[in-house]
Amino acid sequence: MIQYCFDTMIVINLHRQFPRDVWPSVWARVEGIVDAGRAFLPRQVLIELERVDDDCAPWCRNFQGFVVEAEADEIELVARIARVHGDWVTPRHNDADPWLVAHAVARGRQLVTAERMKGTGTADRNLKIPNIAAEFGATSLDFNALARQEGWSF
Predict the structure, then answer these.
(1) Structural domain boundaries, residue 8
(2) Of 106, 114, 118, 128, which has the highest C-beta tally within 10 A?
(3) Which CATH number characterizes residue 119's domain?
(4) H/E stretch holding 39
(5) Whether the model pTM is above 0.90
(6) Dihedral angle of Cα 90, 96, 97, 101, to the nearest 10 degrees
(7) How many domains does the chain have?
(8) In the chain, which ranges are continuous DSSP H helix?
(9) What's the pLDDT tens digit per position in 32-67?
């Protein structure tokens, strides 16, 4: 079964664009893959959510095993990403992104993000998650692609 790693904006967009009272079937499907142990959120993404959107973090903490700690190979990969793309991350910009990419790469999970890849020649500071993910061997997709891949329709 395919497993996923969620970016900060995927969780935020779920809350903002698909209110539970209007879209209960969307929530049931997302929570189904989380409950089944097929979707994950690195701890650093949760920390970012706590800074950005108070409603999202409690929802993430409700699921056992959803929020995961970085393992040694992920920490090494984050360091490698930082060496190769030193301008991509700052303490207040993209700070969870290398952890997200490292988790997806190390665990063989598809990265679900709202970001779109930038073209060749883009400066490091302007690169997006799909650029770095592809460079390090992870697949990234948006929420609609996730829904199609899972066979969901609403």
Answers:
(1) 4-150
(2) 106
(3) 3.40.50.1010
(4) strand 39-42
(5) yes
(6) 140
(7) 1
(8) 8-17, 24-35, 43-52, 56-61, 72-84, 97-107, 129-136, 143-150
(9) 999 999 999 999 999 999 988 778 999 999 999 999
